[in-house]
């Protein structure tokens, strides 16, 4: 996650291409889920680095959805687990 955070920080002034965004969203979500399934504590998973990456991808996702008009094809940072928690 540190590498992704550094890579995104180096490109702070540049908007991500739609394919970069889709790929990064998939990587970050899969990595988070896999570590969570392995029993890594939420306090470890929800680090400042992860929050930084997640916030940047969320902003990029919003920008892409406005400018591309649906180019993400259903890929989103919104996790189905989070939707279930909000309904409780």
Automatic annotation (TrEMBL):
It comes from the Eukaryota. Residues 1-35 form the MUN domain. One of its GO terms (biological process) is synaptic vesicle exocytosis. Residues 66-88 are annotated as: Disordered. It holds the Pfam family MUN. GO terms for cellular component: glutamatergic synapse; presynapse. This is Calcium-dependent secretion activator 1. It comes from Ophiophagus hannah. The gene is cadps.
